[in-house]
Specification:
It contains 31 helices and 30 strands. By secondary structure, the chain is of the alpha+beta class. Helix 24 links the parallel strand 22 and strand 23. Helix 19 packs across helix 20 and helix 27 packs antiparallel against helix 28. The longest helix is centred in the C-terminal third of the chain and has 36 residues.
């Protein structure tokens, strides 16, 4: 798969033309052109020369990405250069257009005075209008060069429609001017004056100016759609401090090599990916993962480019530089997703391929019909021009890519990476979410959940024995016990001997006394356990916990339960999935008791336990036969299931965004982000449907009205109004897509709702703690207020609500105590 930058694209018809030309090249499997980013992705076996040749033959320009200016990967590559250029063009156009409108319409419609040389000379007035129209047409010559070039290649585009409309008005007016000249030469000034009403020079110029306004607004809005990528690019620092030849040297970050030692001081951004070799600090990784809490880093931990060193001085060894850093991969993922095409765009693509030729045909037919109905050439031509300039294939072409671009950027800012436009579309359609257990629903790290000493044994004695035995064990459950004991200050005691019995337990000797630790079966074989102890162990097992029993000689000391605990937000995430109408299923290789316990705690609907990877794959296939399925896993052990699902979601990827099996990569290890991905996908789909509806309905209604079907009812659309409507159509589509920037994740929405339940009041008259205490007491006594924080020093009263309360009720309660609330 290779990317190219394409020059000369102006509308959906251009996209269809280029895709058709490139798809015809031998060896090309697929071709997708993006109107928004002016880029093309081609898959197959081919040479650059063949692809570029096909694009040039179609009437456009192309370069392979990474070649010359078009391939520059600097921060300026996405700089909005089109809006300033269009703005300059518009300013000069308006200068001439305003003069043209004044002399063509100002004196007739508003009674404004004309220069004496033009006031009584119709021919001079008409020729001056023509010169002003020519000036506007020259300023906007790109419409004509692009439009007629496309016509020459038999691939008319939006510029062709504008050029034909403006040129038709100009040519017709020029013909009228020649007739006026003939009349003046014959001395028939009255006839020449009558022909003044048949001039459309102002329409020819106004069409171009109005379309340029629309293009400028569209370009400005399109520039905002790449804000997310530009903000990511701006995160990486320009310079890095590296140690070379024993000295610290400041060099451009792009010059850092793999293996270089670089230093980062508090407050500085990390220039490249690396590993900490000296020092420790807290690093803010929110730019990459969306995680707001800084992550502690010590020697041996990895750091990523564009993250911020908060507190300590650290030295790091560069491991990934340039395009191989996590930041570069994230940017590339977003750009790739934006360059691909969603299945929902196929209808618009089919229409775009025939849209412009159809519009030209309709315009010609419109002129012919009105002439047959006995109307004048000027009237019929005005209707045909209106049809040409109101038609907007550009809106069709932008309906999908702008929404994809904005949604991909919003996702990246929140640690959600969609690898393609198709992944973004399909994700929102899922009806079932299949979840792996370990590391997805649970933390993946076993922890101590219960400490149960035997009768007559205290907690300290149990922990001391357990720590002595498990300290020498490498088992994951032993590490959980050791971590707990170390955190709680349990002192280590030495053993005279130690032996690990694989899969069962451990045996040791301390001060000549035998110690035992391990499973129920193992310890029961070493000493005789009573029925109550066995029942308690079985109960813990049914709750999804692993009981570790400990004994000394023939004396039972107690048991410690260890379990892979459910993540704090898993229950909230599953509840949110249910609110979205999605069924949840857990697919795990763990035993049924453990799986059922986790499912009960997190609220998961169904459980399929003791599954091998190939069995997970079969279960996914069964679920897919019922409804669209998303599989959520770690991207490694779950690769077959992730690939088989309609949408594969890799969770907890951190900075590893290149998980091949996944369609969606979540940077954080939070199940809530699965809900965010689905909600963002649904929001993008809704937005695309709105855009397509607007683009289609605009043309379906606008073209017939422009053709004059409502003239019998007194409604007529002149070319200038048609151009104004067309100029706003694409702007509306792009602006609608920008609303996706207002998307809120589950956690952000929760924060907003919590803030709504907090009120702050400025209270005057509180002089001491007694005063603030009175206000606090009366507020907390009110139904609906859970907490009041009142300070007489600041004069502020903060209240937290559990339900909506009218401000007036709270203010009245405070003022009834003799204080004044500043409104």
């Amino acid at each position: 798969m290779k990317k190219y930058n394409v020059e000369g694209l102006s509308c959906a018809a251009c996209v269809a033309r280029v895709e058709k030309a490139v798809s015809a090249v031998d060896g090309v499997k697929s071709c997708t052109v993006n109107l928004l980013t002016k880029s093309m992705v081609v898959d197959g076996f081919f040479t650059d020369e063949d692809i570029i040749g096909a694009v040039v033959a179609a009437g456009y320009g192309a370069q392979a990405e990474g070649v010359g200016r078009l391939g520059d990967r600097s921060k300026d590559v996405l700089k909005d250069e089109e809006t300033p250029r269009l703005k300059r063009r518009l300013v000069f156009s308006l200068l001439f257009l305003l003069v043209l409108m004044y002399i063509s319409m100002g004196h007739t419609m508003c009674g404004l005075p004309l220069p004496e040389i033009l006031a009584d000379n119709h021919l001079a007035l008409a020729m001056f209008q023509m010169l002003l129209a020519i000036a506007v047409m020259l300023i906007n010559g790109r419409f004509f060069t692009s439009g007629f070039k496309a016509l020459w290649h038999r691939a008319p585009n939006m510029d062709s429609l504008v050029a034909l409309g403006s040129a038709a008005a100009f040519i017709y007016s020029t013909c009228v001017l020649f007739i006026m000249t003939d009349a003046v030469s014959r001395g028939d000034h009255a006839t020449a004056g009558e022909y003044m009403h048949g001039l459309y020079f102002e329409s020819a110029a106004m069409i171009l100016a109005l379309i340029t306004i629309g293009k400028m607004l569209e370009a400005r809005s399109k520039g905002k759609t790449t804000d997310a990528i530009r903000s990511l690019m701006s995160l990486s620092p320009e310079y890095a401090s590296v140690i070379r030849n024993g000295k610290e040297t400041k060099i451009p970050a792009s010059d850092v090599l793999v293996g270089d030692i670089f230093v980062v001081r508090p407050g500085e951004s990390i220039p490249v990916d690396g590993i900490v070799t000296e020092g420790e600090s807290a690093v803010d990784e929110s730019a990459l993962t969306g995680e707001s809490i800084p992550v502690d880093k010590i020697v041996g931990d990895s750091v990523s480019a564009a993250t911020i060193n908060h507190s300590g001085f650290i030295k790091c060894k560069a491991t990934e530089v340039g395009e191989d850093t996590a930041l570069s991969k994230i940017i590339e993922t977003v750009k790739t997703a934006s360059a691909t095409k969603a299945p929902i765009a196929k209808l618009a693509d089919r229409v775009s391929g025939i849209f412009v030729p159809t519009v030209i045909t309709v315009a010609i037919a419109t002129v012919a019909v009105w002439l047959l109905l006995g109307q004048s050439v000027g009237f019929a031509l005005a209707r045909g021009i209106s049809v040409l300039v109101i038609s907007c294939p550009c809106a069709l072409g932008l309906a999908t890519p702008v929404a994809i671009m904005v949604a991909s950027g919003v996702g990246a800012r929140n640690g959600i990476l969609f690898k393609s436009a198709e992944a973004l579309e399909v994700c929102g359609k899922v009806k079932t979410v299949a979840l792996d257990k370990t590391g997805t629903v649970t933390s993946g790290n076993p922890g101590v959940t219960d400490i149960i000493p035997a009768h007559g044994v205290d907690k300290g004695e149990l922990l001391s024995l357990a720590y002595a035995l498990e300290k020498k064990s490498e088992h994951p459950l032993a590490r959980a016990v050791n971590a707990y004991c170390e955190q709680n200050g349990v002192s280590e005691t030495g053993l005279e001997s130690f032996e690990a019995v694989s899969g069962r337990g451990v045996v040791g000797k301390r001060n000549g006394t035998a110690l035992y630790g391990g499973s129920l079966a193992f310890v029961n074989a070493c000493i005789s356990l009573d029925d109550d102890t066995k029942k308690l162990a079985d109960t813990l097992s049914l709750d999804g916990k692993t009981p570790l029993l400990f004994a000394e000689e023939n004396r039972f000391i107690g048991m410690i339960a260890v379990a892979d605990t459910v993540k704090d937000d898993s229950k909230a995430a599953v509840d949110e999935l249910h609110r979205l109408g999605i069924k949840t299923v857990m697919l795990t290789g763990d035993n049924k008791n453990t799986a059922m316990a986790v499912a009960r705690e997190s609220g998961i609907d169904n459980v399929m336990a003791s599954l091998m990877p190939e069995e997970k794959l079969e279960e996914i296939k069964k679920l897919k036969s019922e409804a669209p399925v998303a599989m959520v896993g770690d991207g490694i052990n779950d690769a077959p299931a992730l690939t088989s699902a309609d949408t594969g979601i890799a969770i907890g990827a951190g900075t590893d965004v290149a998980i091949d099996a996944a369609d969606v990569v979540l940077m954080k290890s939070s199940l809530v982000n699965v809900c965010d991905a689905i909600k963002l996908s649904r929001a993008a789909l809704k937005n695309i449907r709105e855009n397509l509806f607007w683009a289609f309905i605009y043309n379906v209604i606008g073209i017939p009205v422009a053709a004059g079907v409502l003239i019998p009812f007194g409604i007529r659309l002149d070319p200038m109004l048609a151009a104004a409507a067309m100029s706003l159509s694409s702007f509306c589509v792009v602006s609608n897509s920008l609303r996706l920037n207002m998307f809120r994740t589950v956690n952000k929405q929760k924060e907003v709702e919590e803030n709504k339940m907090e009120r702050v009041y400025r209270v005057e008259g509180m002089m001491c703690t007694h005063c603030s205490g009175r206000v606090k007491k009366v507020l907390e006594a009110m139904d609906g207020i859970t907490l009041a924080d009142v300070s007489h020093e600041t004069g502020i009263a903060k209240v937290r609500l559990e339900k909506e309360l009218d401000d007036s009720i709270i203010i009245t309660a405070i003022e009834n105590e003799g204080y004044t609330v500043i409104r």
